Amino acid sequence: MEEVELTPKPGLVDLDNDGSHQDLSIHLMRKSALSLQETFARIAYISHGRSPSLSLRREIATIGREGETCMFKATGGVNTHKGAIWAMGLLVSAAAMGTGSHTIKEVLALAGETARYPDCHSSITVTNGMMAQKKYGVLGARGEAQREFPHIRNVSLPMLHRSRANGLPENEARLHSLLALISVLDDTCILHRGGRGALLFAKKRSAEILSTGRLEGLDSLNEEFMLHDISPGGSADLLAATLFLDKLEPNRIEAEVQNAFGCTY
């Protein structure tokens, strides 16, 4: 909910407009998010007291697919949060494992370990992201999770905390975190809609705005993204996951970021 309401976001649904989407709206995104509450609660419940395993991976996958059904029912068949169900489901499960008391680094490691187990039903539905991943040879959502979310660990979380430390308001700190993701992520949503040229354009323009330290160019960037039908949906999913992780241990994570993470922005 906080991800979709973050404004202004380039090419994405927010409180100002629907970005590069003809079939999405802020109302639909909110409705979809609310429909998934029970899904994530169930994932947390079955994960508590356990550790990564093949059986848990398949249980999570079953609940995730049931969540997708709830999402499509709420949205009238529109895909609003399929990618977020994957990423958030793994992270919610990891956060709830054992006694539910983990550092962010441990949560990411547990999520990655879980993601590396096979799902016997994973090949039934071929998504747009999977097709883009195969066509362009990029990491994709599955690879991102299996590698313990390197773009969250090394890019979005450090940027979020660095921006706060520099005195930026929370909204601006989160927008910096999003731009940092767009500028480096091989976003399969962008690749699917516009190919490699659109991805390189999105990375370049996001990095340019980020390098200025100011966000005055976001409105024009949104217009450019809309003109080229660019929507960084993969980056939006990772931003939502970043905001979730940020809430888990607000005191310890700051020290962890300062001690362990480096960022060149």
From TrEMBL:
It holds the Pfam family CitG. It catalyses: 3'-dephospho-CoA + ATP = 2'-(5''-triphospho-alpha-D-ribosyl)-3'-dephospho-CoA + adenine. GO terms for molecular function: ATP binding; triphosphoribosyl-dephospho-CoA synthase activity. It is an enzyme of class 2 (transferase). Keywords: ATP-binding, Nucleotide-binding, Transferase. The keyword Coiled coil does not apply. Its EC number is 2.4.2.52. The keyword Nucleotide-binding applies. It comes from the Bacteria. One of its GO terms (biological process) is prosthetic group biosynthetic process. This is triphosphoribosyl-dephospho-CoA synthase. It comes from Peribacillus simplex.
